[in-house]
Amino acid sequence: MAHAFRVFVLLQLAFLLEVQALLAQVEAGSRVRVTTTPAKPGRRIGSLVSLDADTLRYSRWDTTSVIALPLASVTRLERSTGRRSNTGRGAMIGGLIGAGFGLFLGIAASTDNSGWWEVGVDDVAVVTAILGAGGAGAGALIGSLSKRDRWEPVPLTPRLAGKPRVPRNITGLTLRF
Q: Are 146 and 94 in contact, with CB atoms under 8 Å apart?
């Protein structure tokens, strides 16, 4: 009996420590992205109001009302680690598009046999480089106007996420009174 009581107390203590670890990882006011079990509304983004042992409360950016979700329905919780610009990504995409278009124009002009203008390999390379640089500049300008969040997953313990914990290497537990 005393052994079973010790096991019970240790399990309760472990559960409380898991809850405290979860609560410490994300604090009120953090920007969070919540994915729920019925994925009908999809991912929900908002500001965390509170996180209890069984309920997550957040407010969306477009409203002032607080939405409460049972933690059992939350399948994934992520917190924003900051926003970053898409300047580099835009420059890369714009440069590739510009260079591809320049290469296409250069090859198309080099196959023209009208004799009006001779286009050599060097000219194709120059057109490709010029249009690639122009595309990179335009892409960087467009990319700098948009921002994206970087998300970090907040681990949910299986008990808190509503998923049954599968015991491993345990065959059973018997309590006698």
A: no
- Write down all domains in the chain, each with its CATH number in brackets: 2-83+150-154 (2.30.30.100), 87-144 (no CATH)
Closest residue by Cα to residue 63 from 77, 49, 51 = 49
CA–CA dist 73, 81 (Å, integer): 24
Nearest residue to 167 (alpha-carbon basis) of 36, 3, 7, 6: 7
Which DSSP state fits 64? -
CA distance 95 to 101: 10
- Can you give the pLDDT of all 177 residues of the chain as single tens digits? 677 767 666 666 555 555 544 444 677 788 888 888 776 666 788 888 888 878 888 888 777 788 888 888 888 888 888 888 889 999 999 999 999 999 888 888 777 666 666 677 788 888 899 999 999 999 999 999 988 888 888 877 644 444 444 445 555 556 666
| 50/23 Cα distance (integer angstroms) | 9
Which of 35, 151, 138, 145 lies closest to 92, judged by CA? 138
Q: What does R_g of the chain's alpha carbons equal in angstroms?
A: 29
